[in-house]
């Protein structure tokens, strides 16, 4: 009975580890997409870049931010899933 519990905890622990990696990458990807224009506005070197970014920020809506977050989260989660598959195929821990 001890071995079954150890195996189950090992499987559950790996699943939780992979899920947390996927979740963290999804959040980071979503945040990066949401705040990209704001960061670009601050770091723009030329007048045209600053003006374009300022326009994007002024015309930004919550709906557009939500959509960008979902796109970024999807891409981040995809990277996390690919990493999890890579680890599973190699037999490594997350």
What would you say about this model in short?
The protein has 94 residues and is mostly helical. Helix content is 88%, strand content 0%.
Percentage of residues in strands: under 5%
By secondary-structure content and strand pairing, the structural class works out as: mainly alpha
Please state the average pLDDT score: 85
Number of strands: 0
Characterize the overall form.
elongated
Question: What does the main sheet amount to?
Answer: none
Supply Rg: 20 Å
Total separate domains = 1
Helix content: over 70%
What is the number of helices?
A: 3
Element order: H for helix, E for strand:
HHH
- Amino- and carboxy-terminal Cα gap: 26 Å
Low-confidence runs of at least 5 consecutive residues: none
Structural descriptors:
single chain; 94 residues; mainly alpha; 3 helices; elongated
Polypeptide structure, described:
The protein has 94 residues and is an all-alpha fold. It has one domain (2-90). Helices cover 88% and strands 0% of the residues. The chain has 3 helices and no strands. Helix 1 crosses helix 2 and helix 1 (2-43) packs across helix 3 (62-90). It is elongated and about 55 Å long. The mean pLDDT is 85.
List the helices and strands and how they pair.
Layout: H1 2-43, H2 47-58, H3 62-90
């Amino acid at each position: 009975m001890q071995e079954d519990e150890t195996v189950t905890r090992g499987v559950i622990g790996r699943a939780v580890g992979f899920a947390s990696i996927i979740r963290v990458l999804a959040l980071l990807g979503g945040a990066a997409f949401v705040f990209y224009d704001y960061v670009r506005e601050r770091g723009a070197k030329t007048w045209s870049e600053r003006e374009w970014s300022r326009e994007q920020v002024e015309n930004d809506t919550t709906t557009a931010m939500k959509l960008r977050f979902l796109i970024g989260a999807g891409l981040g989660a995809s990277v996390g899933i690919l990493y999890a598959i890579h680890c599973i195929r190699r037999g490594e821990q997350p």
